[in-house]
Design a protein that fits this description.
Blueprint: E1 2-5, H1 11-23, E2 27-32, E3 37-42, E4 60-64, E5 84-86, E6 89-91, E7 97-101, H2 108-120, E8 125-127, H3 145-158, E9 161-165, H4 172-176, E10 181-184, H5 192-201, E11 205-208, H6 215-227, E12 233-237, H7 253-262, E13 267-269, H8 271-275, H9 281-291, E14 295-301, E15 315-316, H10 320-338
Parallel strand pairs: 7-14, 8-9, 9-10, 10-11, 11-12, 12-13, 14-15
Antiparallel strand pairs: 1-3, 1-4, 2-3, 5-6
Helix pairs in contact: 2-3, 5-6, 9-10
This protein binds phosphoenolpyruvate (PEP) and manganese (II) ion (MN).
Length: 344
């Protein structure tokens, strides 16, 4: 940590600060500048008490942490891009993967038709949501046990990998049997107990960014997964709560670029929950790929008009091929741009 003292601090002030730094088991190194004195403190910030308490001393102007709170997630720790494998499909490492499926499983026919259409377009990881955490308790909450049974049957027929949201610890066990990847939704992005328990289940995890999480909070949430031995983590930007209702959530493309620079984890974009409207999804999908995302997760339903949840934003599965065809030049460009140069 770096402690900046106020202008004209006395030798007594410097000694007081240095003594407190020693008491907190860091080694102080005093750097006297022309105008201000700085105390650089040597010690592992992650295992020691924070020096931020020194902000309360009258002679201290500011205290800056140097170490990041997300060590295992950071590129300093793991410089190469990490690749996450979901049922044999790779996310990251130069591959651009499009995950797709309905917001929720609503019936056998609805889910089967969606999966049939999407698999026919080449989708290899489908959204399969038997549990739906909803903002209102009066909204459709998912088919739960019946949804799990539908998942089993459809998976048996098409053999496709499935991603399911885990809204609480008691859903881990029932989903383990059928889900190839677990999703942590925006509302649970800072539920640390859930993150720890999901990490221990040993499945790859898609971690959505919280409705108002900073990039640091998002990456630190991912650290909870990795520190609990879940190395297969994909980040997902899905838009933030904002002042502007023009889109459902404000897609933070800058955060995708920042996360890609700070972290080795694959990052994908969810244009559907950001857009909130079908007509905006293709543009946000293109933008996500252009800014460096390793893929997309897109909502698609056989009959969006009659969907039980998120009807306005779901694409029609029968028209999904057209969506992918229109996106193809951007996918191609993104693939080329992400290709790791072969060693010479
Ligand atoms: C979802 O993907 O179904 C969902 C609820 O998204 P989010 O958690 O991003 O709101
Ligand atoms: Mn949805």
């Amino acid at each position: 940590m770096i402690i900046v003292l106020k202008r004209n601090s006395s030798e007594t002030d410097i000694a007081t600060v240095s003594d407190m730094v020693c008491t907190l088991r860091y080694q102080p190194r005093v750097i006297r500048g022309v105008e201000q004195t700085v105390v650089a403190c040597i010690g592992d910030e992650l295992s020691h008490q924070s020096l931020e308490v020194l902000r309360n001393l009258p002679a201290v102007e500011s205290v800056f942490p140097v170490q990041k709170k997300f060590k295992l997630v950071s590129r300093e720790y793991h410089p190469a891009d990490s690749v996450v494998s979901v049922g044999g499909t790779r996310i990251g490492g130069g591959n651009i993967e499009i995950l797709a499926g309905p917001c929720a499983i609503e019936s056998y026919d609805q889910f089967r038709t969606a999966v049939r259409d999407l698999v026919a377009c080449g989708i290899r990881i489908v959204r399969a949501m038997p549990f739906k955490p909803r903002t209102s308790p009066y909204d459709f909450q998912g088919l739960k046990q019946d949804g799990l049974q539908i998942m089993r049957e459809v998976k048996k027929e098409f053999g496709v990998a499935m991603i399911s949201e885990v809204p609480g610890p008691d859903k881990i066990e029932p989903l383990l049997e059928v889900a190839d990847m677990f999703q942590i939704g925006a509302r649970n992005a800072q539920n640390y107990d859930l993150l720890e328990q999901i990490a221990k289940a040993g499945r790859p995890v898609l971690l959505k960014r919280g409705l108002a999480s900073t990039v640091e909070e998002w990456l630190t949430a991912a650290e909870y997964l990795i520190v609990n031995n879940c190395t297969q983590v994909v980040l997902c930007e899905r838009g933030l709560r904002s002042f502007d209702p023009s889109t459902r959530n404000l897609l933070d493309l800058g955060a995708v670029a920042v996360a890609k620079q700070l972290s080795h984890l694959p990052v994908i974009v969810d244009p559907s929950h950001a857009a909130g409207a079908r007509r905006l999804v293709p543009a946000l999908a293109r933008a996500g790929l252009a800014v460096g995302a390793d893929g997309l997760i897109v909502e698609a339903h056989p009959d969006p008009l009659n969907a039980f949840s998120d009807a306005p934003q779901q694409l029609e599965t029968a028209k999904f091929r057209q969506f992918l065809d229109d996106l193809a030049p951007w996918i191609e460009l993104a693939r080329k741009e992400r290709q790791v140069p072969s060693p010479t």
